[in-house]
Amino acid sequence: MDAERFREELLKLHSIGIALSGMHDLNKLLEMIVREARHFTGADAGSLYLREGDALRFAVSQNDTLKERLGPDGERALFSSFTLQISEASIAGYAASNKKNLNIPNVYAISDAALYGFNPDFDQRNDYRTRSVLTVPMLDHREEVLGVLQLINATKDGQVVAFESEREDLVRSLASQAAVAVNNARLTTEIKRVHLDTIYRLSVAAEYKDKDTAAHIRRMSHYSAALARKLGWDDDRVELLLYAAPMHDVGKIGIPDSVLLKPGKLNAEEWKIMQEHTTIGARIMADSESPLLRFSETVAITHHEKWNGSGYPNGTKGEDIPQVGRIVAVADAFDALSSKRVYKGALALEESFKIIQSDAGTHFDPECAAAFSEIREEVREIHKKYKDV
Ligand code: C2E
Ligand code: SIN
Ligand code: FE
Asked: Cα separation of 170 and 143, whole Å?
């Protein structure tokens, strides 16, 4: 490979690395890695398997020839739910168990002495002709095998040729980027799961209550996220809200039990104390560097404001109330209405929807109330899903 070409490819690889580090969606990211690896090598087809225990599962498959013949949906259908054992018997399994590249010029001419063999089922079923195959393991920084990247039929001037051995290192390095991406995605998922679990537990603890409160927090945060999505928020902000909404009432940790758990109606003095849960919550989360906590702070301080200005603690009105507060107000009240409380019984969902509508323009932002009505099926699903968890 000449120096100029090498430089170009290095730059390309670098720019892929940068693009990857900014991508959140693992599937898209793996698709992109396979596409770039094919681009580097001129491969007609490419697959990526992810390791699950002792098996390799198809995660990505691209095949230009079959795509042209079958269309994108047909191409996708070919590969769904395909798994291989990690054993020496298959090419991909061999590469995984030995952590070795396999660059095979013609899979139909593999020597009988080889430990691995080519499985021609796919070719027969789809009238495809596999010939050259470059298979590289996806190794992470600890040399763990996270999967296998397989490139099929290097093509030059319309002819299938062998993969250039000089390109193996580049492909291997792309496969490692895929491994890093998979590790990151798994870590992120785990961190988010633990984070959300912690938020739920702290929020429940703040209200000194039981399973009912846990379910309320889950439902109202999912209602809030669904409503925000309906109002056009992007995925990242919707997710942020899903994490911020559970903390809307953490200020209740500062409300005496005698008030918080009082079975009947609150008197004027108790009501004044109760209203402080908004400002106490905001104080707990104030001055944080975390965008999530800053968002939660806004939610805590605004979720009891009303559209007509009769809410608390500030009596803010209309669009002066941050939209997130107007969203959470609907979600929180809807779930409070449809749930049993120490001070009241539960209303039916239908009845609760009606109250949200009838209080639109007084308590609730009319736009939020209308959008909530449009997602009622989703709301019912969420209600069903988090009934007693
Ligand atoms: P929560 O029980 O989680 O209720 C949240 C919000 O849902 C309420 O905010 C209110 O906007 C709405 N909501 C709940 N039940 C009803 C209802 O029957 N009708 C209507 N129209 N809206 C309802 P709010 O009123 O600011 O109350 C905040 C928190 O104060 C409540 O949270 C609850 O913890 C406490 N609280 C409110 N009223 C009473 C009461 O009479 N007795 C006791 N013990 N606590 C109360
Ligand atoms: C293998 O690695 O043996 C699977 C290749 C294929 O069936 O296309
Ligand atoms: Fe509240």
From this structure: 17
Model confidence pLDDT, tens digit, residues 210-235: 557 788 889 999 999 999 999 999 98
90 lines ligand 2 (CB under 6 A): yes
User: Is the same domain home to 248 and 175?
Assistant: no
Same domain for 159 and 211, yes or no, is: no
Output the DSSP codes for 136-147. Answer: EEEE-TT--EEE
**Cα 336 to averaged position of ligand 1 atoms, centre (Å):** 7
Residue ranges making up the domain that contains 333: 207-385
Q: How far is the CA of 150 from the centre of ligand 2 (A)?
A: 8
- Residues near ligand 3 ion, CB 5 Å cutoff: 249
Please tell me the predicted confidence (pLDDT) of residue 213. 77
Q: Are residues 261 and 379 in the same domain?
A: yes
Q: What is the pLDDT of residue 336?
A: 95
Q: Is the distance from CB of 203 to CB of 300 less than 8 angstroms?
A: no
Locate the ligand 1 atom nearest the alpha carbon of residue 329 and give its number: 11
Ligand 1 pocket, 265 CB below 6 A? Answer: yes
- Could you give the C-alpha distances from 18 to 14, 22, 23, 177, in angstroms and in order? 6, 7, 9, 11
The pLDDT assigned to 103 comes to 97
d(CA 88, CA 97): 7
Is residue 266 domain-resident?
yes
Pocket test for ligand 1, best of 207, 258, 343 (most atoms within 8 A of CB): 343
At 380, which CATH number? 1.10.3210.10
For the segment 135-168, what is each residue's pLDDT rounded down to a tens digit?
A: 999 999 889 999 999 999 999 998 999 999 988 9
Strands 159-161 and 145-156, by their bridges, are: antiparallel
Residue 305 pLDDT more than 80? yes
Domains: count for the chain: 2
The residues, any chain, with a CB within 8 Å of residue 221's CB and separated by 6 or more, are: 241, 242, 243, 245, 246, 331
Which residue puts its alpha carbon closest to atom 17 of ligand 1?
A: 337
**Residues 232, 337: one domain?**
yes
